[in-house]
Amino acid sequence: MQTANKKCINPDCGLTFDISTGNYLCTCGYLLDVQYHNLPKRELIDRFYERRDHGGNIYDESGVWRFRDLINFVNIDCEDFTQCASYLVSLDGSEGRLSKPYKMSKVAEYADIDIDSLLLQPEGYNPSGSFKDNGMSTAVTHAKMLKIRNLICASTGNTSASAAMYAANERMSCSVYIPKGEVAPGKLGQAFQFGAHVIEVNGNFDVALFTSLKAARENGGYTVNSVNPFRIEGQKTMIYRVLESLDWSPPDWIFYPGGALGNTASCGKCLMELYKWGWIKKIPRLVVVNSEGANSFYELVNGHFEGKKLSWNNGRPDLIMINRYYEFNDARGKVPKTQATAIQIGRPANIIKALRALDFTNGLVVQVNDREMADGMSIVGLNGFDCEMASGAVPAAVKKLRQEEVIEKDDVVVGILTGRQKDPQLVVNYHLDSNNRFANPPSKA
Ligand code: F0G
């Protein structure tokens, strides 16, 4: 008997699909969730902890698959190594293995929050250097289940790096659609090096996503963008690791940079499930941080368009308004533009799931500018951790919400630093300009 299926998130539809089907959209046009039929027992918490002493079992070593009982859409016996090895895709146990929350005292000082209150989780410690590996391992597991051997995605650079890495390791092929000239060199280099077929699109990420989805429909191929519900499943493990480090006592706040809003969607689903199962009693508030130059979600949610705040509205968000907003931007030639190219996105594909997440967590959407993100990235560096500019949005937003007294000095705040630095020239330029707050220019001999 199957233990999971896919379910449309539209409450007026709710259509279900077998787990072995390949569609990511319902016939009504909404995205799908993976839905589990079993109620997991809270005693699993002890098992997850014990698996950290992995004894060479890569599925225990992996920070994703250590929690496999909670994302068991394949329906395996999680204690049977042979079954794990036959079905679960892992880069030798490395995904999510090193990323856990760290205290960073200088970031805490910078943001004016208690040193013990701020926990930042560097997902750049993943094998391809970003949080994407959490969800890619699960998505590629599903592709393997369906026996599809060509992966396809659009990307601002990290998704393509991760997809290409897993494809290479699984001897699959991989096609990546990227916005020409808008991808950090370190990310583009990874796609080439891992042997992906790189297709440059004249246009931004939104155009690249449209083009790649069309190509997958017409020519076949397994889409690994975050519209894929199996990506969302793997990304939940970031929050499991956070909660494990806090003895499963939820923080007050969780911050993410927002682009296509896959993380937002995933965090929301993760918390909804844990709450439903009775594993957590308190719901942390989610903060999504947009770049000022790519702020569709910020504008829509905060009523900056037509003076009406977009909301989940019990599963009936104003889709017409979202389309009007996109058309309005197109008509005036507004395209997303930010130095944080990872989140240079105008039409976040997971917007509806993200609205659900905000609704469930009483969340907020804020925006920060490029200078603030660069400072955020640099203060993380001064703690001995590196992250990319999009991730710098997190410390910048914590600081902003502290200044506005939205969060208290002793609130427990978790921030996900989504990726490591792959744009070294951007960093060098920052440090050569002594006007920058944390500039560290070289001296002359
Ligand atoms: N941070 C980094 C480093 C990213 O690469 C991305 C997204 C995000 C944040 C935003 O996350 O989409 O879940 O809201 N990068 C995608 C890519 C779009 O193609 O690599 P999100």
In short:
The chain has 445 residues and is α/β, with parallel strands linked by helices. Helices cover 38% and strands 14% of the residues. The protein contains 16 helices and 13 strands.
Task: Indicate the topology.
Elements: E1 4-8, E2 16-18, E3 32-36, H1 44-50, H2 58-61, H3 81-87, E4 102-103, H4 105-111, E5 118-122, H5 132-145, E6 150-154, H6 158-170, E7 173-179, H7 185-193, E8 197-201, H8 205-219, E9 222-223, H9 229-245, E10 253-257, H10 262-276, E11 285-291, H11 296-301, H12 319-331, H13 351-361, E12 364-368, H14 370-381, H15 393-403, E13 413-417, H16 424-432
Parallel strand pairs: 5-13, 6-7, 6-9, 7-8, 10-11, 10-13, 11-12
Antiparallel strand pairs: 1-2, 1-3, 4-5
Helix pairs in contact: 4-15, 5-6, 5-9, 6-7, 9-10, 10-13, 14-15
The site of ligand F0G has 21 residues, from helix 6 and helix 10.
Structure description:
The protein is of the alpha/beta class and 445 residues long. It has a domain at 102-128 and 231-432: 3-Layer(aba) Sandwich (Rossmann fold). Helix content is 38%, strand content 14%. It contains 16 helices and 13 strands. Strands 4-5-13-10-11-12 form a six-stranded mixed beta sheet, with helices on both faces. Strand 7 (173-179), helix 7 and strand 8 form a beta-alpha-beta unit. Helix 9 (229-245) packs across helix 10 and helix 14 (370-381) crosses helix 15 (393-403). The longest helix has 17 residues, at 229-245. The mean pLDDT is 97. It binds ligand F0G.
